[in-house]
Amino acid sequence: MAATSFFTRLARPSPYVCKQCLRNRSIARETRRAISNGWLQKTYEAELAWKDQALKIKAGEKQSMMTILEERGYIKDIAGGRDALDSLMIEKRIGAYVGIDPTAPSLHVGHLLPLMALYWMYVSGFHAVTLLGGATAKVGDPTGRTTSRDSVHSAAQKANMVSMHMQIKKLWVNVEALALKHGYKKEWAWKRALLNNNAWLNTLTLPELMRDLGSGVRLGAMLSRDTVKTRLQSGDGMSFAEFCYPLLQAWDWWMMYHRNGIQLQIGGSDQYGNICAGIDAVNHIRKTHHDPAVRQEKDEPLMQPYGITTPLLTTPSGEKFGKSAGNAVWLDPEMLSSFKLYQFFLRTSDEIVERYLKLFTFVPLHHIDLVMNKHALDPSKRIAQHLLAKELVELAHGAAAAGRAESENKELFSKGTTQIERSAIRQEIAKSMSEVKNSPRSDISPSLNPKAPAVTAQNAPSKNVILPRSLINEGAFPRILYAAGLVSSRSEGHRLVSNQGAYVAAEPAQSREMGDQLSWTPIKNFHAQSPPTFVIDGSLLVLRVGKWNIRMCQIVDDEEFEAQGLSCPGWDEFKAQKAAREEIEKEDGRNPFA
Ligand SMILES: Nc1ncnc2c1ncn2[C@@H]1O[C@H](COP(=O)(O)OP(=O)(O)OP(=O)(O)O)[C@@H](O)[C@H]1O
Ligand SMILES: N[C@@H](Cc1ccc(O)cc1)C(=O)O
């Protein structure tokens, strides 16, 4: 039998595989085995480390996550029970998330409260997800609002989303650098992701939502929410879309609970209602899911979802800092410079500076105590405020910007400056801060100054530029990259495109479950990729060179561009060539023999 099969095999024509390929195959097999073994080993070690840490916490040798969050002032309310969540976080490396709707081009200081709680969890070993509400932003959270939100043009919505996406990514990089600075060593088990709810809400069907979630949602509970009651009583009413907003937020949580093990949602205290609705929804779906492989028959305490709300950051008069209130302190350096952000925190009163140091920094508590003692000796030196301002700018804009803001500030307020000059400078800063506009498109500046000299990638003043429509419609990508200030010449643009070093944004979506990429298409040199096919809603083109260098190109008609007195690199040359071309065409039209 064996002999037969041996000869049968010999007789069967087999595809020829060369020795090199055979070697590669076996290397690939070995590598795969090595990776998966390595991964399993690390996962096992991480589990052991967590168990070991749990023992230390129970023995009182180490603080629990809950205690750290409480001590630093991050907890306003806990949904699901404080002690139960405390024990869960001791036993299990759960995942947590903070969701933000990109309804403005930038995050503001208020957002940092829930985000800092999440960052602390991350540097303590938990899995952390920042969720951008690309889909929920289109509806708009009605919580706490007495009127509906103004509708925002969809190009502006997309621009906001790309801006915030890049900003959140940068924040994560700065968080890691700050954690390192304050003595946290990055471990293999630290996991973070930036997701966008476009990925699942754009493909969610109504029957699916109704079957899985709608069946468990009680109308009474939805109607009794404060925002709904206020709107109905005040006569303004509420759209069905706004009424359904909490269902979309709840679906987000379910998706991330199921796919990524997210058991905790963190938000500002105004999010308490949405978070509770999310807990009910996740509990309903996990217990009643139609797929037995997903359904959780037993009520496992280690699988419960929980919520944390952080206190609201308010003005001294008690008003919430935020977009709707029109008093947001923006984190985007193009909307508020590092110097002004530094200034904002430098003006923190002595009464709240300690609280802010705990909330907005990774400075250990014992170090804050030392600083406060030193500060008390001579409050006029504002030692605590300087530390707060520097750490905050470092978090928002990075270490180099923080260093510059600090030295600029020291220079301005150095001994040579008189009291009168100082108060004039302060007034100037306060005035310009109050002028930071609140409109979602306020960041689009005529950043390439009227008749400005050539802008190079190195001195590009802004990630937001305005470009004339004909340049997009008739120009090729190298010219547009030059006009947008991403390269210093058209030929550099050509070289970059040939080397596939430039990208254009396609519909932002996520291909991988925990991936954090917007989708970008490499710009190539062939005709099918003509720039107008990438223009979003007729008025926005998003370009990227390298990892961080992006341009949001707002496209306006040529007449408007000229009327505003704007210019961009290569514009005069383009206009001259266009005029010459048109002239020749006119000539050709006149000459029937041409
Ligand atoms: N001033 C603040 N203090 C604490 N948390 C805040 C503050 N502002 C926003 N947040 C929190 O940040 C998260 C995202 O908020 P959101 O995007 O709705 O910002 P917002 O400025 O409150 O927007 P809007 O005013 O348009 O509702 C939520 O959890 C929200 O509670
Ligand atoms: N509703 C939140 C943002 C958010 C969006 C989606 C979520 O899944 C969670 C939170 C807010 O407006 O503040």
UniProtKB/TrEMBL annotation:
Residues 435-448 have a biased composition (Polar residues). GO terms for cellular component: cytosol; mitochondrion. Its EC number is 6.1.1.1. GO terms for biological process: tyrosyl-tRNA aminoacylation. Pfam families: tRNA-synt_1b (PF00579), TyrRSs_C (PF16714). Keywords: Aminoacyl-tRNA synthetase, ATP-binding, Ligase, Nucleotide-binding, Protein biosynthesis. The keyword Nucleotide-binding applies. It is an enzyme of class 6 (ligase). Gene3D superfamilies: HUPs (3.40.50.620), RNA-binding S4 domain (3.10.290.10), Tyrosyl-Transfer RNA Synthetase (1.10.240.10). SUPFAM superfamilies: Nucleotidylyl transferase. Belongs to the class-I aminoacyl-tRNA synthetase family. This is Tyrosine--tRNA ligase. It comes from Lepidopterella palustris CBS 459.81. The lineage of its organism: Eukaryota, Fungi, Dikarya, Ascomycota, Pezizomycotina.
